[in-house]
Amino acid sequence: MSRLNYHHLHYFWRVATLGNLTEAARQLHVSQSALSAQIRALEESMDTQLFERSGRRLLLTATGQRVLGYANDIFSRGEELESLLRHGIEPEYQQLRIGVLSTMSRNFIEGFIAPLIGQPKVRFSLHARGMANLLDGLASHQFDLILTNSNVAAEGQDSLWQSQLLARQPLAVVGPPEQKPEAEFPQGYEGRRWVLPASGTELRSAFDGFCSRWHYEPDVQAEADDMAMLRLLARDTGALTVLPTVVVKDEIAQGTLLEFMTLPNVFESFYAVTVKRQFVSPVLTELLARQSLRS
């Protein structure tokens, strides 16, 4: 028989969500000492610590963060069920929590969430993180999906991850109009300054390989592993750069930057990653179904 006491879990959920023991006790109509005792009982039954104290504050431990993710799923679905049974109505809105890789193009992210904007019964939140943090958050149900430009390899039929390719963007050489080359690569690019993706990234490795084949040595003025920063450098330094055109689509539309050439057979891929669940929210199912592969 399961040792999990859902009454205790509910108390934990309210304290973790509110972040304040006093306020949680007031809303639950119990004393602080009784609430603390219920949470301690939950920790003892699970043989793990969920909170740690920092002065007067209660902070979630790493395990507490994971438990909170599951509790969010359990009690948000329970509230929807109660509403349906009591009133015969669907929940007022659906919540979607999206984790995004902190270095990804903001323009691509905005395009992905565009179908959600204006839907009165949908609320969503965006959380920028590093890749390891995103996967941890997805595994602990803090996120419903994550957006990344790195594929998450599946490891057999029992793999936790489900990865969907959303788009493939060609890598382009971009720069201000006054820097437009008068000849083909590499002759037309001699003496030009560059701002490039950081060394070690897939995009930089692809560009370095391309340059090597043509025996071209770029004059690198700056590097950045963040697409938003690379966009600003491309716009403001007068140098050439290499990135997917979706990153600078506004600047290209305004004429402040031009696409000079695309690199052959070099793409940046964008993925949506989820975990296998028995229940997937309708809004998430619809959003992923509407994403067509863009190349």
Automatic annotation (TrEMBL):
Pfam families per record: HTH_1 (PF00126), LysR_substrate (PF03466)
DNA-binding listed as a keyword: yes
Domain HTH lysR-type positions: 4-61
Keywords, in A-Z order: DNA-binding, Transcription, Transcription regulation
Stored SUPFAM superfamilies: Periplasmic binding protein-like II, Winged helix' DNA-binding domain
Domain of life, source organism: Bacteria
UniProt record similarity statement: Belongs to the LysR transcriptional regulatory family.
UniProt protein name: LysR family transcriptional regulator
Organism for this UniProt entry: Thalassolituus hydrocarboniclasticus
